[in-house]
Design brief:
12% of the residues lie in helices and 40% in strands. By secondary structure, the protein is mainly β.
Length: 467
């Protein structure tokens, strides 16, 4: 019995990607449009919304427990609320005063703490005030010309909502009504101007293909056919560029002697490993990313510039993306994967190093679009029967096991053959004694390097095209 792998290596698949903005904006494409990886799907300029915290204990003037929170809340996590809308209501007795708790802003209820009695509302960025002019001098009752003598901030400072921005004799205070940058302290009008920084964001197609659906105000769905390969670990975000093979074979390391100016703007493909020096040279010459069988974990940390978060990668501050196909160390690339990459040498590839190892597994991926500018009718005919890759299908199911079959492609998951690929040639009926002297079910595997070895079935990961 072996672990059934959910990792996908597909030479031809139907790939459907949803490209969305994090906040409403302008969609720049229409259904049916042909796009390339650098096409801007949608863009937005928005003021980031603040989180507002409501303390039910202070609002209701009493201790609050989980049961009371459940009883008074009129809204749930995820509900959209408007400013001054009632979100909680409490009445101790029939003749008692009704206490209503209202939302301080337009936004979404992001979190409700039943134990602490706190509500977090994330302000809707579309309703966030970008500018606030505070009449500080009049509030303190001073001549506007004296304003700079009582301010506690300077122009260019970033302040959070509620921070003291001016005070007089330690008794009268002026607070910042919003979080933002102090743009101007005016001694003519006696005002302090706060401005929220506007964030510019856009989302690219990332893959070449056709827009099959527009998501109003947010983005679109892009569909293509082509090769789809998942790795086991990566760093860096989305990149696209020409694929170029830089090793003599799947078991050969990155050839540093071939790295020069011609790798600029390219995505390099290495075999079994890539040294830190070779990767740094590629990066210095303008390469966008690297696909490799294995890599030293400490080298990867130096490349990222910090310790790696095993929970989630892809958010590193780096201009270079790495996709590791097999694991840490020197591990030859699976022959099937290498053949696909070699076949598409010189084609445009899209890579993403984002990895999430914990719940909701996300694997780094390589997409090589082959759909081109085919007519929609021809494209639909060509995609008939192809495996579908979408945001939903990429979610890895729980670990499952499969009975091995002769002819299965497998990968060894334990020493002494860790990381090596092969094909099952025979499945002995009787258990055999292995190196640790345990008696286990085994499989006779022909490794890709030609060796025939006997491996416990529990130490094998099986790959099947129907997964």
């Amino acid at each position: 019995m072996a672990v059934l792998s959910t990792l996908r290596v597909l030479e031809n698949a139907l790939i459907r990607k949803e490209r969305k903005l994090p906040t409403p904006g302008d969609v720049l494409v229409a259904e049916g449009d042909q796009v390339d990886p650098e096409t801007v799907i949608a863009k937005a300029e928005y003021v980031k919304g603040n989180p507002y915290i409501i303390d039910l204990r202070a609002e209701l003037k009493q201790k609050v427990g989980p049961e009371l929170v459940d009883r008074v809340m009129l809204k749930q996590v995820g509900d959209i609320v408007k400013a001054k809308e009632v979100i909680a209501r409490y009445q101790k007795g029939f003749w008692s005063e009704v206490i209503e708790v209202t939302s301080p802003c337009d936004g979404v209820i992001e979190y409700i703490s039943r134990t602490q009695g706190r509500i977090v509302i994330r302000e809707d960025p579309r309703s966030a005030k970008p500018v606030s002019v505070v009449a500080a001098a009049s509030r303190l009752g001073i001549n506007p010309r004296l304003l700079r003598f009582v301010t506690t901030v300077r122009e260019g400072d970033y302040v959070y909502e509620g921070k003291i921005i001016a005070q007089l004799d330690g008794q009268d205070f002026v607070y910042a009504p919003i979080s933002g940058i102090v743009e101007k302290i005016c001694t003519l009008t006696g005002t302090i101007t706060l401005v929220k920084p506007i964030k510019h964001t856009k989302v690219l197609a990332h893959i070449g293909g056709r827009v099959t659906k527009v998501l109003p105000h947010y983005g679109a769905v892009v569909e293509t056919t082509g090769a789809y390969i998942q790795g086991v670990f990566g760093i860096g975000g989305e990149r696209s560029g020409e694929l170029i093979i830089m090793s003599g074979g799947p078991d050969r390391p990155l050839d540093e002697s071939r790295i020069d100016e011609h790798v600029s703007g390219k995505i390099l493909v290495s075999g079994s490993s890539a040294s830190l020096e070779a990767v740094q040279a590629a990066r210095a010459h303008g390469a966008l990313g690297l696909i490799t069988g294995g890599m030293n974990q400490l080298d990867l940390v130096q490349l990222a510039g910090r310790e790696l978060n095993i929970g989630l990668t892809g958010q590193e501050d780096t201009d270079f993306t790495v996709v590791i196909l097999e694991g840490f160390g020197q591990l030859p690339v699976n022959r099937q994967t290498w053949d696909i990459l070699e076949k598409h040498n010189g084609n445009i590839a899209s890579i993403d190093g984002t990895t999430q190892i914990r719940a909701g597994v996300i694997r780094p991926e390589i997409i090589i679009s082959t759909s081109g500018d085919a007519e929609p009718a021809l494209a639909e005919e060509a995609t008939c029967g192809l495996p579908l890759i979408s945001d939903e299908t990429k979610l890895a199911p729980t670990v499952t096991y499969a009975a091995l079959r002769v002819g299965d492609r497998v990968r060894c998951t334990r020493p002494p053959y860790f990381g090596l690929w092969g094909t099952v040639e025979n499945l002995p009926l009787e258990p055999s004694q292995v190196e640790c002297e345990a008696v286990l079910e085994v499989a006779e595997v022909r490794l890709d390097d030609g060796r025939s070895v006997t491996v416990p079935q529990a130490n094998l990961e099986v790959f099947r095209s129907e997964v």
